Amino acid sequence: MNTLSEIIRREAVQRGVLSFARFMELALYCPVHGYYETKKDNPGRHGDFYTSVGVGELFGQFLAFQFAEWLEEVRSAECEVRIVEAGAHDGRLAGDILAWLKLKRPELFGRIEYWIIEPSAQRREWQKETLKHFAPRVRWFSDLTT
C-alpha cells in the first residue's frame, strides 16, 4: 500500500467513516502525497486528460472577451472588478484572461482584481510563478472563509 492509502486508512480507523469531502481533501491535497501536491503537469497519452485550458490560450481569451462584454455595463462606475477562480491549476487560465484584458481592454484591466481560491500551497507557488507579470492584480486564498 502506498503512503497516501495508509494515511487515509489510519484516519478512517481513528475517526470512523470519512466523509467524501474529507477523503477528497486527503487524496488531492495531503501534503507531499496528495495528487495536486505531487504533480505539476502531466497531460497526454500516459498522463492526465487535457482540459480546455491546457490546449491553448483561446479558451481564456473567449472568457476574457465575455467578461469584458458583461462588465461594459458597469464601465461608468469607477469600481474595482473581481474575477474569482477556484482551483486555478497552474494559473494558465488566469494568465490568458489577464493578458487579453491588458491588451484589448486596458481600462478594464486597470480595475481588475483576480482572486484565486487554491487550497494547495504547492499549486499556489506554481500559480504565482505563472502569474508573476500580473502580481499586483492577483490575490490568493486557501479557502472561501478568508
Q: Would you write up a description of this structure?
A:
It is a single chain. This protein is mainly alpha-helical and 146 residues long. The protein has two domains: 3-38, no CATH class; 58-141, Rossmann fold. The protein has seven helices and three strands. The longest helix has 14 residues, at 58-71. The protein is elongated and about 55 Å long.
What does this entry show, briefly?
It contains 7 helices and 3 strands, in the order ααααβααβαβ. The model has no long low-confidence stretch (mean pLDDT 87). The chain is elongated and about 55 Å long.
Q: Report the structural category.
A: mainly alpha
User: How many domains make up the 3D coordinates?
Assistant: 2
Taken from the alpha-carbon principal axes, the silhouette is: elongated
The CATH topology assignment of the largest domain is: Rossmann fold
CATH superfamily of the largest domain: Vaccinia Virus protein VP39
Instruction: Count up the helices.
Output: 7
Distance between the termini: 36 Å
**Mean pLDDT, nearest integer?**
87
Count the E strands: 3
The CATH architecture of the largest domain is 3-Layer(aba) Sandwich
| Succession of helices and strands | HHHHEHHEHE
CATH class placement of the largest domain: Alpha Beta
Which value, in Å, is the CA radius of gyration? 18 Å
Q: Main sheet? A: 3 strands, parallel
Give the low-pLDDT segments: none
Q: Strand share of the residues?
A: 5-15%
Oligomer: single chain
Strand order of the largest sheet: 1-2-3
Q: Into which percent range does the helicity of residues fall? A: 40-55%
